[in-house]
Amino acid sequence: MKIIAFTLLVCLYTNGVIAQSRFQDPATGKWGYQDREWNIIAPAIYDEVQPNFDTIMAVKKDGKMGAIDEKGRYRIPLIYEKIEPNLPGFPSQYGYAAVTRNYKMPNTWGMVDGRGKVILPEKFRYVRAITPQLLVGKVDVDSFYQFYDLRGRLLYKIVGRRLSPIEMDNLCFSVEGYDHKDRAYKLDGKPVYPPDPTAGVWTNGELTILSKGRYEKGVINSKGETVIPFEYFRIKHGLPGHFIAVKVDEQFMPVSTGVYDYAGKIVVPFAKQSIVVFGKTYLVYDETKDDLGGMLAADGAQILPMQYRFSTVHVSENGYGKIPDSHPERYLMVYQTEPRRQFLIRNDGLVIRPEGSSQVTYLSEKHALIVEMAPFDPQQPELKMAVDLKGNVLLPPEYLLLQFTADPKVLIGKKTLAGRVGFIPLEAPQKAEFIYDYYSRFYNGYYRVQVGRTYELYNPQLKRIHSGEYEWVNEPDQSQHDQFRFSKKTKEKLVAVAFRQGMVYGEWLGITESGKDFLFKQPEQPPVKAERPSAKEEVVEVMEEAPPVVETDEAPPPVEAPPPPAVETPDMIFNMFDIQEPPEFPGGKDSLNQYLIRNLKYPRLAAENGIQGMVAIKFVIEKDGSISNITLVRDIGGGCGQEAKRLVESMPKWTPGKKNGQKVRVEYTMPVRFKLE
Q: Is this model's pTM higher than 0.70 or not?
């Protein structure tokens, strides 16, 4: 199948979140929208489709632009030359968009809301949404900015040459006058500090940030009393009731940062550090120690000392759809280097650190956490356990594989490498039956499990809907979806296809959401379709007759080895060809393959765009078996290189290489194949 175009996007609308993809008709080159099962939302009749509108999907046809909703209905008619939903200089347009019917003419911009209602007429050279309730426009020859409510009624005017939002919140904005001086205003159009409008920066009515010079910002109260002294370059919001204050040197480099409360008391002492609000806590990074970070409570009490590194928590929704109660933004991954450990912190200060954990995986507030334990014996594989968000053990560390299901009360896993897989009810794990040879999860949320030649299908609620002996069972591709819809044999959705022994080319069984199957042959009338790669499942368990998702036994891309130095030193890094005993992953090559297969998380961007191929990554195996000097040699994009690097960083210690019986540092290049099955 020839790949024409495929881009997955997320379009927000008032009733929820849906996944759409844009597709291109290879015959006409026109674009349209369809859902994950290739149902046409908008036909391929558009010259362009743009996935960057806040609430609906922008389209262009015959030089005119409009916008359609999730059902393909026009919300903004095809009458505009230009639609701009994201305007420079402002963090958000709150669902509004600037529109014009004559892009080359001045004073022709207006503003519409996310459902196409005209708020401001097309008479401005400049339109913006300052807040969800306040819009602003300016005419080319006018010195005034004109401010409007959501009914398009003029509220007030302010003279100025440039308008900017204030980064702190939506309570104030700044206007640069024709005298090149900035003046801050409240949303009612009144100056932040009437006695000296050029000194005001921000106010909430009780406290006001003032500027007496470039390095002299401070805070006064409603009585005019100084709350925070005038000695800071920047003052911004901290946690509720707090300000973060920053001092800089003459080169504007931060030299000291701390936190005041609204009464002027120092909550976090000043030091060479950076401070970031995270939920109900502060993340503090020590700029004198390679930006190692810690966490402080709202009162300044230490939650974590400044000796860790943090990263965001990513949740893959593939196979689950929209995950209820999933809030990865509330958590951070915390990394400790010696010993190598990983755990979670929540933005309310809760530390989730199971003893001995080397990795903690989060899916939602209702799901358990899957914890991978660092083995005491590096020759042994890492075992997994499950805990709740309070740290209570739900499953002991005796599983080689544990994976989430859509049901928060059920995991899927197995206990030994050669063992079978089963569904594990967390409320009664002793009832788990490990009876399946292999399993995989489709993108539509259905599970395929196999015992010998018997295949079973489970729906996302883990109810078995179908069982039978087949040569193969797979997720439907686009042509099968099209043929299924064209036949009109049932109103149910097609969820899987199956092939029996003896079927001729073109024959297949379509299995519906209730488990019914229908026989299909060559289509009587080929349905019209736009070619694109089918959305297939990421294989989790590698089948003997199927190529694995991750392969490490093929030759890596050629890497030039540096010539060996004449004199060997204790810190010398050797090439694999220069030593007698190469380094080895715990358990050997097969264990390395299994480690990669179990731990690889196909990057969402790569999966959505059909990115496949081989990533090559180079690293050094130290004398103690640890990993260092990780370098990406070959990347294929879509986050695959970063995922391969993460896999290497998370590896257990290797058995080090030896030369002449002595442990040495060895450079190792490893290919990691990313393949959608």
A: no
